[in-house]
Amino acid sequence: MRILVTGGVGFIGSHVCEALLERGDDVLVIDNVNGFYDIDNKLGNLKLLNDKARLNTTRSFNFLLTDITDKAKVGEAFDRGVDAVIHLAGMAGVRASVDDPLLYERVNVQGTLNLLEECRKRGIGRFIAASSSSVYGRNSKPPFREDEPADRPSSPYAATKRSLELHCATYSELFGINCSCLRFFSVYGPRGRPDMAVWKFTEGILTKPPVVINGDGSIRRDLTYVGDVAQGVLAALDKAPRHEIFNLGRGQPTSMNELLAIVEKATGRKAEVEHRPAKDEDIPLTFADISKARAMLGYEPKVTLEEGVRRFVEWYTQR
Fold this sequence. Notes:
Elements: E1 2-6, H1 11-23, E2 26-31, H2 39-55, E3 61-65, H3 71-78, E4 84-87, H4 94-99, H5 101-122, E5 126-132, H6 156-175, E6 178-184, E7 187-188, H7 197-206, E8 211-214, E9 220-221, E10 224-225, H8 226-239, E11 243-248, E12 254-255, H9 256-267, E13 273-276, H10 291-297, H11 305-318
Parallel strand pairs: 1-2, 1-4, 2-3, 4-5, 5-6, 6-11, 7-10, 8-13
Antiparallel strand pairs: 9-12
Helix pairs in contact: 1-2, 1-8, 3-5, 5-6, 7-9, 9-11
């Protein structure tokens, strides 16, 4: 099977592509390698995937420098032959979306529609899309279930991800595309994003003190190891339900103060901490109910937070 992966040289995307190549799928990546964070990280991921593909000469890996908002270029990518789509590309970051909501709308919504349209025209029946725990907002009752209304997003980023889900539901209903929307919960791990807490805490301890915590550190996040998430993505691809939303989290929220203690233990150093005012767009809790993903996908997160942080710190110090 030939899988088109958007955002395939990003953090989660590179792990998903690596897993696909390891099990023997052909992979076509489109990614614009934008500068949301250091592009050298993404170029390193691209080299890793090229090297991985060379070890399995029976399978192909191809990369196209393409923006999902460019409808013509997206069509050219599909011309190469696609059996299924894993859509991970998009503008990430709750706080940055407040400053530039139009960019987030264009990439996360229009870009998704460009992909869905190509699937519709070409009869491609499997579409897996990355959503976010951010869609739950402040008013959802923990643990967050997929049948929550999710109708009061707390940021433009969250609003665009909820819109993505609704467009997927529409294309599933009208055109029979099997769409699964995966709500990721604070994914971390090797090759992670520098704006995420595990990276920032590690960096603040080892190379660029202090560690900055917004608020008093009581905010809790359902931190989920990237390898577990990648397996959840592949399970959604293989099961291909008609249209479903799945939480991919760990189901165990951790406060920022607790996380910092875990990072301190993994690095063997004590942090110098600077507290700053809490951000209005930061919701106080994310907490995934993963019973649906367990039942329908066989999803089962295996990596503890302590082990995942240890793996990240090892990668960070050796990169």
